[in-house]
Write a structure and sequence with these properties.
Helices cover 29% and strands 29% of the residues. The chain has four helices and twelve strands, in the order ααββαββββββαββββ.
Length: 268
Amino acid sequence: MKKYRYIFWCLLIVSAGGGVLWHYARKDVVAVAPEAEKPAAVAVAMPPPSGHFGTKPKMTSASRAAVLTLAAFKEKFGQELGVETNRKGQLLRVRGSLSISTRFRGEYKSDDPAHVLARAREVLESAAGLIGIRQDSPCGEPEVTAGAGSAQVVFKQYYDGKPLEPLGKITIDIGPRGELVALYSTYATGFEMVNNDVIDRAVAFEAARRAQPSMHAALASGGRKVIWVAQAEKMEGRYSYEFHVEGRRIIIDAGNGKVIFTRDMRKF
């Protein structure tokens, strides 16, 4: 009997010990279980270097040439010059001052028209590419105003030997030592001629008189030929005559004799 009890307790102890060992074995398995599989790496687009937002647009040869021309212009006349262009990149204005503009290196007298004109031509030639001056529409007949403190030169644009109106002027202001103080341009670079020069002055004169009927209409003056440039769907140029009747400016189309512009010059 004692023998059987002894065998029973031995089996019980062995059974209990096995349970304990199984428990700790499971704990060990949990503790050393392999890590869960990591997700695949995701490619993250790095931001571009500081100061650049995306890829720079490629510069065309024309835009690159304009930038180089502007750089050369500022190098010559003043690095801090203010520059204004239109949407097509055509130069409209340059703003300088006696403190930021480069002085002329050499003899220069602001009250000498020859010195003033030479300096203004230097500015104009340097800015020709930026302004968009065409070979078939040059600038000529400069009006020079010289003075001890400042000077001004106005260049007029021509086409087929006739001045453009009301656009086509380049005004250059120069300081006492040759500084480029300002440049203002209304040069018309993209106009196209849309009529022919077929009406003589006498016919145009009568058309101008009829446009302003009065007892003084016979006193109409003027009659010079101009290229009238107006902005419609595109910039159009017309051979025209310019008259003044009783203080009113009247432009007659040299192609058909019609009035294309009239304005009372006595009103501001």
